[in-house]
Design brief:
This protein is of the alpha/beta class. A five-stranded mixed sheet has the order 6-5-7-9-8. It has 22 helices and nine strands. α4 runs antiparallel to α5. The chain starts with 5 loop residues before the first helix and ends in a 23-residue tail after the last strand.
Length: 523
């Protein structure tokens, strides 16, 4: 047997990685995006569809919390499983196409590239898309080779579930059609019934989303905000587009990106002539082009980028590992990429991170995490108060002033507070006419509050005046001058809203029923 022992090494590596990720998932708090997805799957909020994305990730989180409760591990343990399962799929596909040695080093590359080391530490759309892309790669490869019904069925199922993660994942199917179109020998297969039957089968996964969108719960919000949801309706921005592209390169690590460009130049026409390389490039190309193009209109979704790059990681890993056996330069280049990518991944995964002080010059060590905001921008989270500590202090202030409701100005903060507050009470968000979130489909505070109820409004802005909605809905709205937070960041504002009078009604109000535990406030 050639290259003996690589399968055992891969199994040991991925099992060890699974155990490490299970431990690591408990060492830091949820990101705001994870908390938002958790809230979508919490209680009666679980739905067959949502406004911004499909329901697949909230379903996974609901399954995860059924085993380990509403904890960081409960939300993330399936991300660890998806990461390691994807490694096994990549290994067997690369071994099928090349050899066990190339497959092993491809899996190692997949593990250490920052984009996957970081993104697969969180339970988001990126994690689910990566796992489904790995399965889709394997199924389409075997379907193209053997043309068996069960391989097309597996590919259609994986692609259909990807649509339930995010609708732009339909570009995977466009990539498959592109592959048949640009390969003369395979072009006649565009007329085959199995291919189009698979695409039709994939479309059946959209039925729950179509059913939900036709419901009464969508009508009011859709009529009010539909124009803002069409693609390419935002302003063109060179800065936003190039920032998106640079973020991709940074997440991939610069040496890996350079190696990818050099490899494309070296292969040349072979990229299209070799059916293995052609399939990998075609599956990635349409989605990457679309996401980078829409980024110039503030609409690129970075959460979908890791899955789109996965075929290219497989291509680089297999080809370079094979080339490094006979080419010394390739061996050193491959080693350099490994070392640089591993160091970059480890630095950001380190729980102690040096950041600039917020109160003057110098550096300080904060327990923090690198993460991703809702628009996909990379940032170093420099909050001086963790979500858990913020929730503890909010509870204390709530008791001191007698507030019964909690309102915030962002979905991330509201979701995180809902997660970390005792008994998971629902935290409300002020509506914004130019932004649609899932909160627009749930009851607002003005629908749930009783006369004379009071509330805390928590904002992370420097506005000196309270929002107009609060002023018209409460008899008294006063800012707390000195909230009792340690190392308080002055950009946070806490407003004490007394005596709900309910004179306003949000334009995005809906008929959704409140979750059963929405009135469970800490005593």
């Amino acid at each position: 047997m050639p290259n003996p022992g690589y399968r055992k090494r891969t199994i040991l590596l991925l099992v060890a990685l699974l155990l490490v990720r299970f431990w690591f998932a408990q060492t830091f708090e949820l990101s705001g995006q994870e908390a938002y997805l958790w809230l979508q799957g919490h209680g009666t909020n679980l739905s067959p569809a949502y406004w911004e994305q499909g329901p697949f990730v909230p379903w996974l989180i609901r399954v995860g919390t059924a085993f380990f409760g509403d904890t960081e591990l409960g939300v993330r343990w399936l991300a660890a499983v998806i990461c390691c399962a994807s490694g096994f799929v990549l290994f067997y596909l690369a071994r099928h196409w090349f050899n066990a040695r190339s497959a092993f080093w491809t899996v190692v590359l997949f593990i250490i590239i920052p984009m996957y080391a970081w993104k697969l530490s969180f339970m988001t759309e990126a994690t689910a898309s990566v796992g489904l892309m790995a399965l889709t790669l394997f199924a389409f490869c075997r379907a193209v080779e053997e043309d068996r019904v069960w391989w097309w069925l597996l590919g259609g199922t994986a692609s259909g579930l990807a649509l339930l993660v995010a609708l732009p994942n339909a570009w995977w199917l466009a990539g498959l059609l592109l592959y048949f179109a640009v390969t003369p020998d395979r072009r006649p297969r565009l007329m085959e019934a199995l291919l189009w039957s698979m695409i039709l089968f994939t479309g059946l996964f959209l039925l729950p989303i179509i059913w939900w969108w036709r419901g009464e719960q969508v009508a009011d919000v859709a009529h009010t905000h539909m124009l803002n949801a069409w693609p390419l309706t935002h302003n063109f921005s060179l800065n936003q587009g190039f920032h998106f592209i640079w973020t991709e390169i940074f997440y991939l690590s610069v040496p890996f990106f350079i190696l990818l460009v050099v490899l494309f130049w070296r292969l040349g026409r072979q990229l299209w002539e070799d059916p293995r390389y052609g399939l990998l490039v075609c599956l990635a190309l349409p989605g990457l082009v679309w996401q980078n193009f829409t980024a110039f209109f503030h609409e690129g979704r970075f959460e979908l980028i890791p899955a789109l790059f996965l075929p290219l990681v497989l291509l680089v890993g297999c080809y370079t590992a094979r080339l490094s056996r006979i080419d010394r330069v390739a061996r050193w280049a491959f080693a350099g990429v490994f070392v640089f990518a591993a160091l970059q991944s480890l630095v950001a995964l380190n729980p102690f991170y040096l950041v600039h002080r917020t109160d003057g010059p110098g550096l300080q060590v904060l327990r923090t995490r690198s993460g991703e905001n809702m628009t996909g921008r990379f940032y170093a989270d420099k909050r001086q108060i963790s979500w858990r500590n913020l929730a503890d202090h909010v509870v204390q202030i709530q008791r001191d002033v007698g507030a019964t409701l909690i309102i915030t100005d962002s979905t991330s903060m509201a979701s995180a507070l809902s997660f970390y507050l005792p008994r998971n009470p629902f935290v409300y968000v002020l509506g914004k006419p130019e932004v649609i979130t899932q909160f627009d489909f749930w009851p607002g505070y003005d629908q749930s509050a009783s006369p004379n109820d009071s509330a805390l409004f928590i904002s992370h802005t420097n506005d000196d005046q309270p929002p107009a909605d609060l002023v018209k809905n409460f008899a008294s709205v006063k800012i707390l001058d000195d909230p009792p937070f340690p190392d308080f960041d002055k950009s946070w504002s806490i407003w004490n809203c007394q005596q709900f009078i309910g004179q306003g009604q949000d334009a995005g109000a809906t008929q959704a029923k409140p979750m059963p535990d929405s009135e469970a406030l800490p005593k």
